[in-house]
Amino acid sequence: MNNRTTRGRAAVVGLVGALVATLGLAACGDDAPPAPTTPTVTVDATVDPSRTDAPTPAGPIVYPLTGVPVDAVPQRPAIAVKVENTAAARPQSGLEDADVVWETVVEFDVSRFIAVFHSKDPQTVGPVRSARPVDLRAISPLEPLFVFSGAQRRMVIRIGRVPQIQPVSHDAGAAGLARVSTRRAPHNVYADLATIWKAADADHSAPPRGDLRFATEASGASAVVDGRAAQGVSINLSAAARPSWAWDAASSTWLRSEGSAPAMSAAGSQLAATNVVLLETTQIDSKLDAQGGAMVPDQKFTGSGKALVATGGRVVEATWKKDEVTDPFELVDDDGEPILLAPGNTWIEMLNAGRSTYTVD
Question: Which residues pair with 278 in a beta bridge?
């Protein structure tokens, strides 16, 4: 019962009781006066607080993986595509439209990409290659569709044990994946995202929750506010992977190179990122073997580690944190406050702590 109504009724009962007591005392005398008329007491009705208007959402509506304003977030899941990064695979298709691209080192020191799409839907993405254990650590918080071509049987079993991920495998005959005649196998499998989105099941249909935090405008990004000026970041991921990023003030983006050569898209533009994030993680043995018994590496991506964030021609040091594999990772500064990125796409370079290095120019 509403407290205000209870107090009102109690007041009525008290007043009536007092009048009754007064009348009783007067009636004991020989000359008792006429009984007074009982007054009418009105108690105000209360308003149920649960029926008030719903609060207006704070802040603008943005794409969850880029922080870019949008009238309405697309009601579709993220799609993560495993994309090859060798000379035979370049130039790749669709990377320029990814919201987030992860670069990780696999066996034989080569790197591969995990390209995550939600806000844009390029017609073609690829070449698509095989899955690796580190992929699950990077993408499971997004609850995405995971597109790949080829994987060891034990790797397929591992993917199936992660309910946050819906596998979309070329080997399993999934719709939306096909080989093209313009390239040689195994560098010729490409993905049609429009078809793949239609395959989302009931558990993998919601928009993703984002790992990254964004400022409302680029001028509010943490690196811009608190960082130091930088013309570029050169990374030695491994003996076979040496990407670099150069700040381009004209486009307000970092432009990617592979070694000394510009990294181009199949559409003819140089690959670019609004934000570049370097994460130092520890390499571990995945217990899967590649050709000739070579170790397939994995990365320990829980706990915390060092990070570097490049935004707006400036860089700032940070710390990454992640409690569980399926938790989103956090980027924080020395005071534990969230690192904010500029609205736009992000490339994440996963460095092997103790082996990978980088320099800031």
Answer: 308, 349
